[in-house]
Amino acid sequence: MESRELVRWRSAFQLFDLRSWLIVIIGTIVSLVIIGIPTAIIDNPFFVRMTPVRTQDYFIWVMTGCLVGLIAGTNTLTTKTQSNGKVVSGGILSFLAVGCPICNKLVLLSLGTSGALTHFAPAQLYIGIASLVLLSWALYPRLQAINKSCCPHE
Fold this sequence. Notes:
Order of helices and strands: HHHHH
Structural class: mainly alpha
Largest sheet: none
Number of strands: 0
Shape: elongated
């Protein structure tokens, strides 16, 4: 038996047309590239990563891309909500969560190399979780508003 909330989310996504899904895909790809290149998750000649990419980095990176894409897709529908601050904050936190801890100049200046590896690196998982929570928190009211505008009887 499906929960009522899951049914509501699915009904909001059923309102997406081809244009909305294309925006979702483009938004996902763009956010993955914008985060993946400077953090060197995507190998490139411009940035070099000093520490290996961890499994959690890939997970947070992909989930961030998907959530940002879905948020972008909801912008194609007529219902508007204010969630820009959460999206930007979530994106910045995601960037910090998946980046190399000793490649981040601010962290390196604040904590030094050993501090970045012993204190900041373990905290990146929690920063990533906070990022995903913020992005989900930005998506949730948009889906609720879409449901209320199209299906007021539910």
